[in-house]
Specification:
single chain; 75 residues; alpha+beta; three-stranded antiparallel sheet
């Protein structure tokens, strides 16, 4: 509760993040998109680029390609 109030007033500090993720290629259509490593803040859900060489979190990721949702099977 207190953490969410502080985030509202001052913004998220992005201290709790996932392990760096590098998405794999799932189809030939997506092979043209770059496979950049990123981390996700566990508090606010924002994605950030990750630099493996410097072991640092970079700029926020914008415009990530979303995978299409599966359509239900119609009988």
């Amino acid at each position: 509760m207190l953490q969410s109030v502080l985030n509202t007033l001052f913004g998220c500090s992005h201290q709790r993040t996932t392990f760096p993720l590098t998405p794999g290629r799932k189809s030939a259509a997506l092979s043209a998109t770059p496979r950049n490593t990123y981390v996700v803040c566990l508090d606010c859900g924002k994605e950030f680029a990750y630099d493996w060489d410097g072991m640092r979190i970079g700029q926020p990721v914008t415009g990530r390609v979303q995978t299409p949702e599966a359509e239900p099977i119609k009988a």
